[in-house]
Model the fold of this input.
Amino acid sequence: MEFKILKTDGPARRGRIETARGAIDTPSFMPVGTLGTVKAMSPDELKDLGAEIILGNTYHLYLRPGLDVVSAMGGLHRFMNWERPILTDSGGFQVFSLSAFRKITDEGAHFKSHIDGSMHFIGPAEAMKIQGVLGSDIAMTFDECIPYPSTYEYADKSVDLTTKWAKRCRELQNPGQALFGIIQGGMYKDLRKKSTEEILDIGFDGYAVGGVSVGEPKEEMHEIIYFNAPLLPFDQPRYLMGIGDFVDMLNAVEAGFDMFDCIMPTSNARHGTLFTSFGRVSIKKTEFKYDKGPLDPECGCYACRNYTRAYMRHLFLCREILSMRLNTIHNLYFYQDFFKKMRTSIEHGEFAAFKNKWYAIFDRTVTEDSEE
Done:
């Protein structure tokens, strides 16, 4: 994996990640394919709307269908018929957010499956083995994602544990697979600095900031974003994990982050919330009952080119499968197009104007934030 910065506009960066399976233009948004699929989408549709990389999840794919199945099918790329890059999350966040029971030890995490209550264990060695079988292009170190709020003592101990696990993951890095280290520390700046220094000292192919968007106020999240970004190496990719709200992403790109992922476009689509050039829209509103216009006249997606707001509202109220498909196509197209325009604004030295325009449109709270 190689990363090049092509242009800067203040701390905002326009770059490109080169992998054996293709290039990823940054800033980049990765659609989430938790279970080996981006919900309601085929791989060809994802490519058509501009997705260059997707995210798969270690925790979920380990539990179902299981490593034996994915291995027998030739790895995750072949299993899901996606030949472009895949980044896999190590599973640390899912252990934190989904497990009915979890016990953290120095060796790793003991947890109950959210599917059937069976007991499992994932530590650094297991996380690297699973990601090796999946065959992702970019793997993540195993970390502990702590809740908000957490005491200073707990956060400090968690940083030590995350560093210990990161060292082990680095020792077990799979050949031909890039590995990103994850920085933790909660909302404590000195612990964020400590974690950053320790993870950088180990040395990775890229660096991720985790432990944000776990219930903290937006102001605290943004403070950590602006604090942590300058501490990361200039010439390596910077990944802000689990962030998909437009206001948060605009702040993060302004701070110098390059990569993002979130379930927001697909989760909101299934609940009838769509993102447009004039803000969020709830397609179930009565005002759209007789509306002959497209959802967003400025959008070039399949749904906006072919269907009216009235029809999309009708499908949603009837709970038709096509509603989820069209809504998801639109939201994912909108995200990819948004990032394409953002990259262009950085190239032209116009990111500040771009941010101000979209900030005014999307300066609202997140509407959907649940695990897929």
Summary: The chain has two domains: 2-262, 271-356. The first strand starts at residue 2 and ends at 9. Residues 365-372 have pLDDT under 50 and may be disordered. The longest helix spans residues 321-347.
